[in-house]
Write a structure and sequence with these properties.
Blueprint (H helix, E strand, L loop, with lengths): L8 H18 L28 H16 L5 H19 L30 H16 L5 H17 L11 H22 L71 H14 L3 H9 L9 H16 L4 H29 L4 H8 L20 H17 L5 E3 L10 E3 L2 H14 L5 H19 L6
Antiparallel strand pairs: 1-2
Helix pairs in contact: 1-6, 2-3, 2-4, 2-5, 2-9, 3-4, 3-6, 3-9, 3-10, 4-5, 4-6, 8-13, 9-10, 9-12, 10-12, 10-14, 12-13, 12-14, 13-14
Length: 466
């Protein structure tokens, strides 16, 4: 459905306010208004988004990382999806205030248009962003605890007081503030309406309705549930979700893994033997790498949150403006989300058994990885490898291929800060960490890298500027 809103000034904003009020109460299907063909250069006479700090973006993503860690159901793929919609809501809410930039509507799958600001009705971009991020966060973390829902409300109220340089009451009139809040909420709801159709909205937790219980295929070399919990397959249909940028998950395939074989001279046997040997005699450094990049759900912001966290720190350290933060988070988070869709598609197409299963069958029936339990889904490719490679490629383009950075993601756990010479170096370590942990073959870590690079290339090809 397409919702047409009056184009005259006052009636249009009254209509928007009414729609926001109705939507927040009953969450109807809200379609998008046609996007302006013009670029942001003519969108508003107010100060551009570049005139403001990245403070609003920083605080909302920082809270988002905590919500991912503390909200049930936010496994790595689910977390990457949430971050992608948060990043997109931030970008689309302020892009009318970014001269020379354009909406991504018309480029992302099945997203034909989004609301656009009226050229003669000034908006205050930090207020727009605050409202959009608050609204999207509430909807993405609808099952958060009452305490965390209160934290969302508190953050929305407190940011104008915290960043007084961005929320100058002498220039932000009540009319501009109300109009800006309305636009931000409307943008978040328009994006959420689209999000509900991506396949991921009901792919996890108790709300799954339309998909039968997954039964893994049987056969030689095929994945089966792994010790110690023998948990059912995690998100077996995630690879069927609608990607943001890839036309289909299969558009970025991983190279084929080695043919399955239990012969001692075979490539498959050698790679399983390597995992077994490393696990039994891992160096202290290898153990540290394995634990540092584990990014377990429920204990950390997950792998996507790890990369978004260090990006948030980088933007703050560089005193990036609101527009730069919005563009960076849109690219990064779209890439990581599509990377998980592509990886999960390949995992459940190939259904390669995990090292613990192979080793117990062929090498040592009593062996289990000593550092961590094997996750409950097929081996190939390594999700860490695909997602980290996609993230590092985007960040290398944004900040530079040979830029050293400090990662503070796990400081509170006593594992940081750590300095990396480049984003690629960090991604390579993240990929290798799964071998050291005893839960992936080397071919799974190596095979994920070109798949992640392919996803990044597609995202970097998006036209943020006409």
């Amino acid at each position: 459905m397409t919702l047409h809103i009056a184009t005259s000034r006052a009636p249009r904003w009254k209509a928007l306010a009414m729609l926001v009020s109705l939507a927040m109460g009953s969450a109807p299907s809200l379609a998008q208004t046609p996007a302006s063909p013009a670029t942001a250069a003519s969108a508003t006479a107010a100060k551009p988004a570049t005139a403001y700090s990245n403070g609003v973006a920083y605080d909302w993503f920082y809270l988002g990382f905590q919500l991912i860690q503390q909200t049930p159901g936010f496994s790595p793929p689910v977390a990457s999806r949430a971050l992608a919609y948060l990043g997109l809501a931030l970008y689309e809410s302020v892009v009318p205030g970014m001269p020379g930039y354009q909406s991504l509507a018309g480029q992302l799958n099945e997203l034909s248009s989004l609301p656009w600001a009226q050229p003669d009705e000034p908006l205050h971009w930090p207020t727009v962003a605050n409202a959009a991020m608050a609204t999207m966060t509430r909807m993405m973390f609808s099952n958060a605890t009452a305490e965390n829902k209160a934290r969302i409300d508190l953050l929305e109220r407190s940011l104008p007081l915290k960043y007084t340089q961005d929320f100058d009451p002498s220039t932000v009139t009540p009319d501009i503030s109300n109009r800006s809040e309305t636009f931000g909420k409307l943008m978040a709801m328009a994006i959420m309406t689209w999000a509900r159709t991506d396949g991921g909205h009901e792919a996890w937790g108790p709300i799954r309705r339309s998909q039968a219980n997954y039964v893994p295929p049987s056969g030689t070399g095929k994945w089966s549930a792994t010790p110690p919990a023998f948990a059912p397959a995690l998100l077996p249909y995630w690879g069927m979700n609608r990607p943001f940028v890839l036309k289909a998950a299969a558009d970025c395939p991983a190279p084929p893994p080695p043919d399955y074989s239990e012969e001692k001279g075979s490539e498959f046997f050698k790679q399983a033997q390597e995992v077994y040997a490393i696990s039994n005699a891992a160096t202290q450094e290898q153990r540290q790498f394995a634990l540092y990049w584990a990014d377990d759900a429920g204990k950390t912001p997950t792998p996507a949150g790890h990369w978004a966290y260090l990006t948030n720190d980088l933007l703050k350290g560089r005193k990036a403006n609101l527009a730069t933060a919005a563009e960076t988070f849109a690219r990064l988070n779209l890439a990581m989300s599509d990377a998980f869709v592509a990886a999960w598609y390949t995992k459940y197409q190939l259904n390669v058994l995990r090292p613990v299963t192979y080793v117990q069958l062929v090498i040592d029936s009593n062996w289990v990885p000593s550092l961590m339990s094997t996750p409950p889904f097929p081996d190939y490719p390594s999700g860490h490898s695909v997602q980290s490679s996609a993230a590092s490629a985007v960040l290398s383009k944004e900040f530079g291929a040979n830029v050293a950075f400090v990662d503070n993601t796990h400081n509170d756990r006593g594992w940081g800060p750590r300095t990396f010479k480049s984003f690629k170096a960090a991604a390579d370590e993240a990929a290798a960490s799964r071998i050291y942990a005893g839960i992936h073959y080397r071919f799974a870590s190596d095979g994920g890298k070109p798949q992640g690079q392919c996803v990044a290339d597609r995202v970097l090809a998006l036209k943020f500027k006409p």
